[in-house]
Write a structure and sequence with these properties.
The protein is of the alpha/beta class. It is built from 16 helices and 16 strands. A hairpin with an 8-residue loop joins β1 and β2.
Length: 499
């Protein structure tokens, strides 16, 4: 009975939050450009003013070095926010589109209007960036939103709950903290959009709950993102950039290279460089290094240990001894683990890097295509047909060539998965559009009104419309010229009307 009463209490608290935000949205408070710009400026001010607080929280939760906290959370968020501030006005402008010949005289446009009230379920691995970045996209699009930060990163959760009301409009942006029971209460409600970042298992629960209320979702997931090392790659650069992407945040990042496919012709040399690089960066015992973080908790520590213990591969390097008490997991290279082992079936989300020997590009492509479509893919190769061959014959959320994780930092690129790695897009204009309802509008003049479109329908009118619609009553070349001129006219009308 107590648990039932608690569930009912949480449901009521969640619904009260939603009702309050819906009432705020109904006033139109969040729609003007000035309000959106002010919230983005406040968000940026928060990151500058509270940088030390956020870095300390990230260090406490994840043991992440300050450099990685600044790069991965603070500076990236500032860059995303500046990009939105500089482009917001143009994103909000109506977009003129052509109007077909039979719909004239008239003109058409597309507007982007806020969806309403957004629920944001953020993860523990980048607790500041992925919480505040998503709030930034939501308010830029003119929405109200509620953030449910991850309780796993408890220091970051506390900082967000305390500081967001200090900087952002509390009538339109709110926070609700707690564990899975709070998330369960929240996703049962009828939001206008849900944005979830995390793993596929929880994403299915979120999507099923949302489907009951026909709530659209953005699901930012992960999967087994491959790194391909071809015979033509710059091996010294490839080794450093591969390990940088793998060990950033101790591998607890959805776009980390999950495993490496290495051409057999250069494998021995590449492995030698990887081992030297690890030793240069972190010495013989990475536990003593100040440049490597920790696993988030003991549950994930044991999960990673089990992946390693059941890999059936050769341990090429393990820089230090794993330590349960401090949740230290050393950087580990695993050579040719069993393809059916858990480490090759599940997303690793830690500093373990399986390395698979491949005989050809086709071998690599087949290996990638035997698995679910990944969130991203990394290719280390010379410019040339090999890169095109790999991209054209595989599918992934994104691709980065001759580097890792840097594509995430480009606000002009969409970020999101496909299939098991997620749905929806974020970053820059892509995130603005994801949180906007894209609405088509047509304006028709009344000074021309063809009687042939109305009953009584006659054979002659039917033949006329068949020729107009199927044609060709107008030669294709002439029609194309007319349509082109129509698009220019439509744009001119829109500019004059300011609609």
């Amino acid at each position: 009975m107590a648990s039932l009463a608690n569930a009912e209490s949480l449901h009521k608290a969640a619904k009260d939050k939603l009702d309050h935000l819906k009432a705020t949205f109904a006033t139109g408070r969040t729609k003007p450009y000035e309000w959106r710009l002010q919230q983005l400026n406040n968000l940026r001010n928060m990151m500058e003013s509270e940088m030390e607080v956020f870095c300390a929280a990230i260090q406490k939760d994840l043991g992440r070095p300050r450099m990685e906290a600044v790069l991965g959370d603070v500076s990236h968020l500032v860059g995303e926010t500046d990009f939105a501030i500089n482009n917001l006005k143009s994103w909000m402008e109506p977009e003129a589109v052509p109007t077909e010949l039979l719909q004239r005289p008239g003109y058409s446009k597309v507007i982007r209007e806020p969806k309403g009230v957004i629920l944001i379920l953020s993860p523990w691995n980048f607790p500041i960036d992925l919480s505040l970045k998503t709030i930034g996209m939501a308010v830029a699009a003119g929405n109200c939103c509620l953030l449910k930060p991850s309780e796993v990163a408890s220091a970051s959760e506390e900082a967000l709950a305390r500081l967001i009301p200090k900087y952002l409009d509390t009538e339109a942006v709110q926070v609700m903290t707690g564990g899975p029971d709070v998330s369960t209460a929240l996703i049962s409600l009828r939001w206008d959009h849900i944005h979830y970042t995390g793993n596929g298992s929880v994403a299915r629960i979120v999507a099923q709950a949302a489907a009951k209320n026909l709530v659209p979702c953005t699901l930012e997931l992960g999967g087994k993102s491959p790194a391909i090392i071809t015979s033509g790659a710059n091996l010294n650069v490839a080794a450093k950039r591969l390990l940088f992407g793998k060990l950033f945040n101790t591998g607890q990042i959805c776009i980390a290279p999950d495993y490496a496919l290495v051409d057999e012709k250069i494998e021995a040399e590449f492995l030698r460089i990887l081992l030297e690089t690890l030793k240069t960066w972190h010495g013989e015992d990475a536990k003593a290094s100040s440049h490597l973080g920790r696993i988030i908790n003991k549950r994930h520590f044991h999960r990673l240990k089990n992946l390693l213990d059941t890999s059936d591969g050769t341990i090429l390097a393990q820089n230090g001894k794993m330590d349960e008490d401090s949740c230290f997991m050393p950087p580990t290279l695993v050579h040719n683990p069993s393809k059916t082992s858990p480490i090759m079936q599940e997303e690793i989300f830690g500093p373990l890097l399986p390395i698979i020997t491949c005989s050809s590009i086709n071998d690599m492509i087949s290996f990638i295509n035997s698995k679910d479509k990944p969130l991203t893919m990394y290719i280390f190769a010379k410019k040339g047909p090999e890169i095109d061959q790999i991209i054209e014959n595989t599918s992934s959320g994104s691709v980065c060539i001759n580097d890792t994780i840097m594509q995430y930092a480009n606000s002009n690129l969409p970020f999101g998965g496909i299939g098991e790695s997620g749905t929806g897009r974020s970053h820059g204009k892509w995130g603005f559009d994801d949180f906007s309802h894209v609405r088509g509008i047509m304006y028709r003049d009344t000074w021309v009104d063809l009687p042939q479109r109305y009953p009584p329908y006659t054979d002659s009118n039917l033949k006329l419309f068949q020729r107009l619609l199927v044609g060709p009553i107008v030669p294709p070349g002439v029609k194309k010229a007319i349509m082109g001129a129509g698009a220019v006219t439509t744009a001119a009308i829109l500019m004059r009307s300011r609609l």
